[in-house]
Structures are given as C-alpha cells and as structure tokens.
Amino acid sequence: MPDFVDQVVLHIKAGDGGHGCASVHREKFKPLGGPDGGNGGRGGDVILEVTPNTATLLEYHRRPHRKADNGKQGSGANRDGANGGDIILPVPDGTVVKDADTGEVLIDLVGAGTRYVIAEGGHGGLGNAALASTKRKAPGFALLGEPGDELDVMLEMKSVADVALVGFPSAGKSSLIAALSAARPKIADYPFTTLVPNLGVVTAGDTIFTVADVPGLIPGASEGKGLGHEFLRHVERCNTLVHVIDCATMEPGRDPISDYEAIEAELKAYGKLEDRPRLAVLNKSDVPDARDLADIVRPMLEERGMRVFSISAATHEGLKELTYAMGEMVAAARAAAPVVEPTRLVIKPRQLGDAGFTVRRVDDNTFQVTGVKPERWIRQTDFTNDEAVGYLADRLERLGVEEELTKAGATAGAEVIIGSMENGYIFDWQPTLNAEAVHQGPRGTDNRLG
C-alpha cells in the first residue's frame, strides 16, 4: 500500500430520497379522517471540502467508494421521514476535480474551507397529505423518493511540493530527502526503489517548504518509458527543480554532464517546465573519486547557468548551504506567484422564458421529451398505481408538454420517451389525459386509465 497518492478515482453515491407515505387518518368514530401521509426525507449530499491539514489523497485510494445516507420514508399521522446525513470529504488545497469518464474539469478547489457539492441527494417524495387538492381530496398514492446522484470523479492534486528532486534512478534522491527532513523513504542499491514521491518538510531560517523525492527518470521518460509520464506529472506540480547528479556511478556510458543533459532533455520534451528555477547538486562527494569528478564538472554546469552544490547525503557535507539555497528559491517563487483567490461557486439561474423542457421528433411518430422537471417526475411516479400515473399526466399537461407534443406533430398513440434514449421511460401518448378531467373512482385508480 503506497503512503503517497496524488491522483485517485472516487466512486460517489449521494443518498436516495425517502418515499412519501399514502395513509388515511383513522380513529374511533372517524374511519376516514382524511389523508395524513408524511413526506420522505431528503437524501444526504456528498461534499468536497478543502482542509489545510490534508496533504494527500491516500485515504481515498484505500476507500474509493463513498456513499451518503438515504432519507427515511414518511409515515402516517403526518410524520415526515428524517433527512439523510451528508458526508464531507476533506481534500488538499488545489485539488482538481474531473469527470472520470470524460476528463472534463468540474471544479478547481482552492482556499481553505471551500466546499463543493459533488453529488446531490435525491428529493424525498411527497406524502398524500401534501398531494391533496380540491380535485383530489384523498389521494391514494404518494410520490417516490428520487435516487441520489451517482458518478465517478478523478481527484488530482495540483501541487505536490515546493521542490522536486529529479535525476536518474539511484542518484541519491531518497538519501538526500532523508538527510534534509524527517522523511524515511525506502533506500536500496537498485534502480526504481522509489515508485511514488516521498515528501519531506525542510526548514531554512524563516522559510518552511516541502521537498518531493520524485521517482527516477530515464531517457525516453517524456514518451512514457519507465512510467515517465507518471513521474513527470509529479515534477510538473513543484515550483522549483533540483538536479541530483550521481558523481560516483560506475555504469558505462554515464557521467554527470550526460546525466544532467539527458534529464534536461526529458524535462524540455515534456514541456510546461521551462520556467521553473533550477539548481544542481553533485552528490556522493564523500567518495574520493566522486569529489575529484565534482570539481571538474562544477564549472561546466556553471557555464550552463546552473547554481551548483557539492554534497554528500551520507555525511551531510554541504547540506546546510543547499538547504538555504533551496529556501531562497522557494521564497522567490512564492513571492512571484499570483495571489490565488478562493474558488467562487457560480450559480446559473434558468433563463427567463425557458419552459424547462424540450420536445424532439425522433422519427415519424416517436418523440423525446427531456428536461429536469419531467425527468424528475418520472422518477417520482409509482407506475403500479393508476392514480399516480394520472397525476403524472396532469403535471405534464400543466407544464405544457402535451401542447408542445401537439405542435411537434404527435398524434394519439405516438411513442413518447421521457429522458434519455437508452434509459428513458416510454409510453403511448393519449392526449385525452389532461388536467381538465376530474379524477373519480376508488383510491389508487384513475377512470381515465381504464
């Protein structure tokens, strides 16, 4: 199990709304005292909240399925069902939320305390007490609770750390972060010991910053070799880069300058990193041959505009100077960064004159109706109850759906789909079902649906 995760797919389910209750008040000498069914409770929401002390998405890697509570069903005596509890998921500052299927960015969460309802709970169904009217005095039905939103989202941390240590595998990056901070990464004498970044907190005077030991890069990393795209994605989220160069490598065909140029070539090929400040660290100076090689290499790197430090992660030689140099670069990068405003949630009201639904002809006598209200009403209807179906017909007629179907050329018996073509509700349209007809007959029936 990794101890660092900066990207995860989260499977989210908001709570379902509770069903309404169809009940008639009964007591001694009052056998039919009128409808008294309560409403169902609303399902709980799933909310993402930026929390300052959250630095990783590890918890969602361990438990990727999250569900809010369902609303409770209403009951007789006008008792409404309880609302389902919301769940609040803490995320790091700067978390980007994307649709896992399309990759569309849903929101960029910035600023402590910023909240975003990623999945809304379903509305509770109305009980028959709330559905009573002058035309329907004792409804024999109630509305069903709506299902809560269900979706898969990708959470991605925009910023991993202030400083990224980059270099070939086994260059000593893990040893360096262990020497600079309290981090204790796995250290071994074989390549790719590190497969996910290790984070360490470093203090340089008044500047406190985080350092990421990024897994080793190899030539071709920008094309995906050695999980290169994954590793470079970590580098992209750090504002300062430190080349860690192995001056004691015995591998044929490698030397400090060629290593530096190979890594720079991969950073350039990946793009997005050209403006990041850099410095170079010549590591393993405790080895005599490496110290001599570092003295030769230093002026070559300085000619390329690099600030160079010779250090030994093993003996801690040169670490103080390196720490303060990194602190200066981090402080400068923070000062130059634009002020990040907290995420502002924009609510877009429905446009004036918008009917709230659309009617589309699919073929000669097939029509599709889409819109928030008609699709919601379909989900709320108990199709085993004729009176509930008649009530749905009345609602659609009052909304203007029948009128628009007539304008679109629909005739009696036309096939009408409400919702998506794949999962919508299909019925044969009969224009005689309208709100002008007064319901008569036993509870739970509708004489228009004989």
TrEMBL record:
PROSITE patterns: G_OBG (PS51710), GTP1_OBG (PS00905), OBG (PS51883), OCT (PS51881). Its EC number is 3.6.5.-. Mg(2+) binds at S174, T194. Its cofactor is Mg(2+). It comes from the Bacteria. It is found in: Cytoplasm. GO terms for cellular component: cytoplasm. An essential GTPase which binds GTP, GDP and possibly (p)ppGpp with moderate affinity, with high nucleotide exchange rates and a fairly low GTP hydrolysis rate. Plays a role in control of the cell cycle, stress response, ribosome biogenesis and in those bacteria that undergo differentiation, in morphogenesis control. This is GTPase Obg. It comes from Streptosporangium album. The gene is obg.
